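Regression check, 5-O-phosphono-beta-D-ribofuranosylamine case 215:
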Amino acid sequence: MRKNIGILISGRGSNMASLIAACSDIDFPAKAAVVISNRPDAAGLDFASKAGIATLALNHRDYEEREDFDAVIDAALEEHNVDIVCLAGFMRLLTPGFVDKWRDRLINIHPSLLPAYPGVNIHDRVLDDGVRITGCTVHFVRAEMDAGPIIAQAAVPVLSTDTVEALSARVLNAEHRVYPLALKLVAEGRARVASERVLIDYDELEPAAMFVPAL
Ligand code: GRF
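Current build output:
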């Protein structure tokens, strides 16, 4: 039985698009049930509705309490029988109550090799530090920002000629590959949390780590 996913976005939605593309394959273990944005002008909403997926455009400013806003999201996810929630550039911290309810069914993508570089302006900081390898991480969400058991990571080289734009484009390309892979592992029940680490149950060589070359 394919799992229903709900995708939460705030903007462009390119990771959302990569998940929708993966889900369009009938053999993929998940299908896109609903896309929800906390910004009514998010470009990704248009893409999702053109792909025939239910969308919900909210404005978090309409809600005085974070709990009220999260309750509306939760109700929409339930209405669409969502099994797994994917954050894809969703720029709001979710309340501990929401995170607890969806524990180990709520995943996020972050453009660094966590636990290195949580937060924002990641690529600036990576370039300033002169590190040679960066990447992206898909993880189960916990109440603290950019924390939680790691499902999959992709490593990406940093070139000495890189600008923030060039590096972020290279990492984004890796994000688009690793997010569907991580979702597949979760949807197939192959990514199990034990003692706050993810055990990947797989017969072949473990597929949760990849290297995306510069060229
Ligand atoms: C991505 O870099 C993602 O890792 C981060 O926010 C960005 C969202 O981009 N959480 P998009 O909206 O998926 O294009």
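Comparison notes: The chain has two domains: 1-102, 108-215. Strands lie at 3-9, 30-37, 54-57, 84-87, 106-110, 133-140, 150-157, 191-194, 197-200, 209-211. No diff flagged against the previous build.
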